[in-house]
Specification:
- The complex is a heterodimer of chains A (433) and B (311).
- Chain A is globular, with a radius of gyration of 27 Å.
- Chain A contains 10 helices and 18 strands.
- Chain A folds into 3 domains: 13-61, no CATH class; 63-263, Rossmann fold, CATH 3.40.50; 269-406, abc- transporter (atp binding component) like domain (Coagulation Factor XIII, Chain A, domain 1).
- By secondary structure, chain A is of the alpha/beta class.
- Chain A has helices spanning 25-40, 43-53, 86-93, 126-136, 141-155, 170-182, 200-215, 227-233, 251-266, 341-344, and strands at residues 5-15, 59-70, 75-79, 101-106, 110-113, 188-192, 219-223, 236-241, 244-249, 269-271, 286-293, 301-303, 308-320, 322-330, 335-340, 353-362, 370-380, 387-400.
- In chain A, the strands form 4 sheets. Chain A has a 6-stranded mixed sheet, with helices on both faces.
- In chain B, α5 (87-107) crosses α6.
- Classes of the chains: A alpha/beta (433), B mainly alpha (311).
- The interface between A and B is large, with 67 and 54 residues.
- β4 of chain A pairs antiparallel with β1 of chain B, so a sheet runs across the interface.
Chain lengths: 433, 311
């Protein structure tokens, strides 16, 4: 089968500051004015100046010599850290920006969904925005009109369709925006982390809709930080690291590899200042998290049954009496259990502090071997109605197998993610011999 | 990769092989004996180092619905939450005309080729206001729609184009007042008025040319935002809006005629007052306008490649 996407040696470099500093007319005029003197200064000098300008420090390489092919009907997940080059890759494929080197051949029409609500105008009604946003995403007017009822039904905004979207709740807004995009029918669909918004039920419907898209035989490239959706949606998965493709393979294997490598990189400690999992209403108060095992001193991991400390460094503008809640989840995002000093009232009577490290200590963590994710929550005993800072999937935790019972036997993983101590007694019912 | 890539074609083989592989790996796995697959033509090839890729008019035409909706959005949003709404499109040139008539017509006695000064100045203000609004709006249109440019692809020309389109709607509404005034002042409708649509198109071409040029420059040089209003103000005085071309000494008229708006506005007046057209002046205006549009489109298309990176 001929691939539907063929990328060869794609690179993208940005000049440092290119996105921030605007060129001023004066700067350009000066350069134009000094051009003759520079020209007179001779070729050698000019060459030196040029190489000086093009020196490596002046550029950031967002994508570095990337080649790959995608077959028609493929659903390819793309995972990687922030800044790894995932979004740049999608921007090149969707023609928003040109590569610095290399080329892409596309054997189908491309539709991209890099943001929810692209082109939505707050003053316009839901109806108007469906047409506007549809047209921006590349739909023809007749096509939008044909799908209009379906879009409205999918978004569940029938009653508000003639209300300006600035009066919509954020949930309604996101639903409508995604509904329009979900009805695009390109042969190649590029999706960038848009499912991170919206309530859980709607996210599930979006995933279902994207599943339909994939079953129709369309090709989907899907960037996400949500490992569970990568595994459930995609047929293959690409890890991008430092602008290069690190690996391509089956989603489960790639997710496991990625999470393990992230763990090694972070050594169980992670900077939380710019964490992608921070919820929208959070204030940045949690600065850093460190996960370490009490007994063996392994950062980011623990042996089965070993103790574990989760240490969160925080700084608040006004002193707080911190509440820390930790939720431990499977790699797929299903919660297993959570703990919080809100319930135990530890630290309730302490004097407020504006900076510090709050630790949560598990004497014996009853988790089976595998990778787990931690959600972190920071609150204040002083004002328990407010959630200060919430970070989903804040840090990963690896549990290594261990001979916990001293018998050489390990519980079976298929019994679930948790193991538990138990004791057995036998009461004989018959006569003893 | 080889032109005649083969293999991985038989269904079973395709199922058995990983469906995705880095390009290099796929090449290695290919080329057993068998059917030679005809290489399909890509729908699109994205290359690095493109400098000039033509005007791509078919692509622009394919996005005509987007052009319509963007213009429609601009019109609709502009008068949202205003009490007078679209009446503003009429009020702006009308009030300016009243002020000009009192100031220049009555007090300063600026000549108006013997026509009623009110209609004379309105005939100049109508296309001028269109040009002014169109250029002003479209010069800020790319920067104002930065969120679109960094998130979705479409021919960027659509954006300043739609801004001019929205201004054209205002122009057409304000033109109705012109015809009402003509009736009020008893100015006869002559067949020369049939040139009105042609002159409108010419004005649109000038507005589009200057507008898209400025919009592209504004992406890179934000100075445009401050320099342009001033330049437009100066431009208004070197365009015969408050005075007729005949007001200028004959030796200097050619300089005035280089401004395409001069020929166009005088053309509007000829059409309205049923005077014979100054065809050489109109032809010059048409040539300059067309040249301006082509040059602006060229500059725009060249700069367009880096819009998303620098906006």
């Amino acid at each position: 089968m001929w691939p539907i996407i063929r990328a060869e040696n794609l690179s993208k470099r940005y000049r440092i500051g290119e996105r921030v500093v605007y060129h001023t007319l004066r700067e350009s005029l000066m350069r134009t004015a000094t051009a003759p003197s520079r020209w007179l200064a001779g070729r050698a000098a000019r060459r030196a100046a040029n190489t000086g300008q093009a020196s490596a420090e002046q550029y950031v390489t967002a994508l570095d010599d990337v080649s790959f092919e995608v077959q028609p009907g493929e659903v390819l997940g793309i995972i990687g850290r922030n800044g790894a080059g995932k979004s740049t890759l999608l921007k090149i494929l969707s023609r928003i920006t040109d590569p610095t080197q290399g080329q892409v051949e596309l054997y189908g029409r491309v539709g991209s969904l890099l943001e929810v609500g692209t082109g939505f105008h707050p003053e316009l009604t839901g109806r108007d925005n469906i047409f506007l946003s549809g047209a921006i995403l590349g739909m023809r007017r007749a096509e939008i009109a044909r799908k209009f009822d379906e879009i409205v039904a999918f978004a569940e905004v029938e009653r508000f369709i003639d209300t300006p979207v600035k009066r919509y709740s954020s949930g309604m807004y996101v639903r409508l925006a995604f509904a329009v995009a979900a009805h695009l029918e390109p042969e190649i669909l590029l999706v960038d982390e848009v499912l991170a918004v919206g309530d859980a039920a709607f996210q599930k419907r979006c995933l279902g809709k994207m599943g339909d898209v994939a079953r129709d035989g369309r090709t989907v490239l899907f960037v996400s930080h949500n490992m569970a959706s990568i595994e459930s949606l995609c047929r293959s998965c690409m890890i991008v690291r430092g602008g290069r493709i690190e690996a391509i393979g089956a989603p489960a294997a790639m997710v496991a590899r990625y999470m393990t490598s992230e763990l090694i990189r972070d050594h169980g400690a992670r900077d939380l200042l710019t964490h992608p999992g921070r919820t929208r209403r959070s204030t940045v108060l949690m600065k850093r998290v460190r996960v370490r095992s009490g007994s063996d001193g392994v950062d980011g991991g623990a042996k089965m049954g070993a103790g574990l400390a989760v240490e969160v460094t925080f700084a608040a503008p006004t002193p707080i009496r911190p509440i820390l809640a930790v939720t431990i989840k499977t790699a797929h995002g299903a919660p297993i259990f959570g703990v919080s000093n809100r319930w135990t009232r530890q630290g309730y009577d302490q004097a407020p502090v504006s900076e510090g490290v709050i630790s949560c200590n598990f004497a014996r963590l009853p988790l089976m071997p595998g990778t787990y994710m931690l959600d972190l929550y920071l609150g204040d005993f002083g004002d328990q109605t407010r959630d200060l800072d919430i970070i989903v999937d804040a840090v990963a935790l690896e549990i290594f197998p261990a001979d916990i019972f001293g018998t050489g036997m390990i519980p079976r993983p298929m019994d679930g993610p948790v193991f538990c101590d138990a004791s057995w007694s036998l009461a004989s019912a018959g006569p003893a011999h | 990769m080889d032109e005649k890539e083969t293999g991985l074609m038989v269904m079973d083989a395709a199922e058995a092989t990983p469906r995705m592989a880095p390009a290099g790996a796929a090449t290695g796995a290919a080329a057993p004996a068998g059917a030679v697959e005809v290489r399909p033509t890509p729908v699109l090839v994205i290359r690095s180092g493109r400098k000039w890729m033509g005007f791509e008019l078919p692509d622009l035409w394919a996005h005509r619905d987007l052009f319509y909706f963007l213009a429609w959005r601009d019109v609709k949003v502009r008068y949202q939450q205003t009490v007078l709404g679209v009446a503003w499109a009429v009020l702006q040139p009308l009030l300016t005309m009243v002020i000009f008539t009192v100031l220049f017509g009555r007090l300063a006695h600026v000549p108006s080729d013997g026509e009623p000064y009110a209609i004379f100045s309105y005939a100049g203000l109508l296309p001028w206001n269109f040009f002014n609004t169109a250029v002003g709006n479209s010069s800020n249109s790319l920067v104002g729609n930065a969120n679109l440019i960094t998130k979705v692809y479409f021919p960027r020309l659509v954006i300043p184009g739609a801004a001019v389109g929205a201004a054209l709607v205002d122009f057409l509404i304000a033109a109705v007042i012109l015809f009402l005034m003509m009736m009020g002042y008893g100015v006869a409708f002559t067949p020369r008025l049939l040139m009105f649509p042609v002159l409108t198109i010419l004005t649109t071409v000038v507005a589009l040319g200057v507008g898209m040029w400025m919009s592209a420059l504004n992406v890179k040089f934000r100075d445009v935002r401050y320099a342009l209003p001033f330049a437009l103000q100066v431009c208004m005085f070197v365009t015969p809006i408050i005075y007729p071309v005949s007001f200028v000494p004959a030796g200097w008229r050619w300089l005035l005629q280089l401004n395409p708006l001069t020929g166009i506005i005088e053309g509007f007046r000829d059409a309205i007052f049923g005077r014979p057209f100054d065809w050489p002046a109109l032809a010059l205006a048409a040539v300059v306008s067309a040249g301006l549009l082509i040059y602006a489109a060229y500059v725009f298309r060249r700069m367009e490649l880096e819009f998303a990176d620098i906006i």
